[in-house]
Structure formats: C-alpha cells, structure tokens
Write a structure and sequence with these properties.
Layout (H helix, E strand, L loop, with lengths): L2 H26 L16 E2 L8 E6 L7 E6 L6 H7 L4 E2 L11 E2 L18 E8 L6 E2 L14 E8 L17
Parallel strand pairs: 2-8
Antiparallel strand pairs: 1-3, 2-3, 4-5, 6-7, 6-8
C-alpha cells in the first residue's frame, strides 16, 4: 500500500468515526432522529420535515424527562392539533373539555400527577408555540385546534412547570430545517 493510498484510507476512517460521533452526540441532545418507526403508529416520520411540505412538530418534555422529540407531520395540516397527532404523538385531552386542552403527550405528565379531568393548572401545562422555518418561537395566542399551521412551519409543545405567562419555556430546539 502506498503512502497516498494509506492516507486516503485513514482519512475515510476518520470521516466515518466523526460522522458516527456527530450522529450519536446529536441524538443524545434530542436533535437528531433516533429510529422511531413503531412509536409513530404509521403517522409522521422521525425528525424535521426535510422540505417545506409538511409541518415539523417539536415536543419538549422539559422537567417531565424524556428530552425533546422532533417529528414531521407530512402534507397540509388542518390545525395545530392535527399536526401534533399526524406527527405520530399520542395525546390525551381532558375529561371535561376533550382535546380542546392537551393534557398529556406520550403519557406525560402521568395520571398519578395529573388526572386530566378539567383544564390543567396554570402551574403545570403544555404550552403551545409556533414559528416559521428559520424564525423564532412565538407563544400561541390561540389554541391548537383553532390555528392552521403553514406548510414548512414549526409547531412546538413545551411543558411549563411553575412558570408564569412571561417565563414559559419555548422548545429547546431551534425552528430550522436541517
């Protein structure tokens, strides 16, 4: 093996190791999609929508644990609630108001901490956000069932625990398609 060939082999090996380290690092931060085919129930895809077709949905569990999950709801979405469901997230509304108030996403918070009978308390609830691609998160002034997201945009859900209306945390993933 010549010195030149050996150098190419070493460079290729270094590139493969760096690519794997990058993917593993981003997955640990919740920024790269881990395989979730069974979790999506035949809806949506893991990761951000690769093009402006569809709506990217970001769910940030914050203090509930579980990190941040990013999924794509393909195609046109009638409402923010439809985008959340079509991205493959399992949700539960309240007994009194149904899905007008999202009480649980992916089983969190648990039934032991929130019965989901009435509107969740102001001290512990899923805050709803939206943003254009490359923009900044904005706290939604309307409910998810009354808002139609534009294709290519981002919908965000972030659990707010013991925060005020001015300190609710936005999702910790920037609304930018890769």
């Amino acid at each position: 093996m010549t010195r030149s060939t050996c150098g190419h082999v070493l460079n290729a090996a270094r590139a493969a190791v760096l690519s794997l380290a990058l993917v593993l690092g981003l997955t640990g931060l919740g920024l790269a999609a881990a395989p979730e085919a069974t979790a999506l129930n035949g809806k949506g895809t893991a990761g951000a929508c690769p093009t402006a077709t569809g709506v990217t949905v970001v769910v940030d569990f914050q203090e509930l644990g579980g990190g941040t999950v990013v999924r794509c709801a393909p195609g046109d979405q009638a409402t923010g609630l439809a985008a959340l469901k079509n991205a493959g997230f399992d949700i539960a509304g309240t007994q009194r108001w149904g899905e007008a108030f999202v009480c649980r996403i992916e089983g969190k918070p648990t039934a032991a901490t929130e019965a989901c009978v009435n509107t969740p308390p102001a001290s512990a609830y899923w805050s709803y956000w939206h943003a254009p691609n490359g923009g900044t998160w904005g706290y939604s002034q309307s409910g998810a069932s009354g808002r139609k997201p534009a294709q290519g945009s981002f919908e965000g859900w972030s659990f707010s625990l013991n925060k005020t209306s001015s300190t609710n945390p936005a999702p910790r993933v920037a609304p930018v398609r890769p």
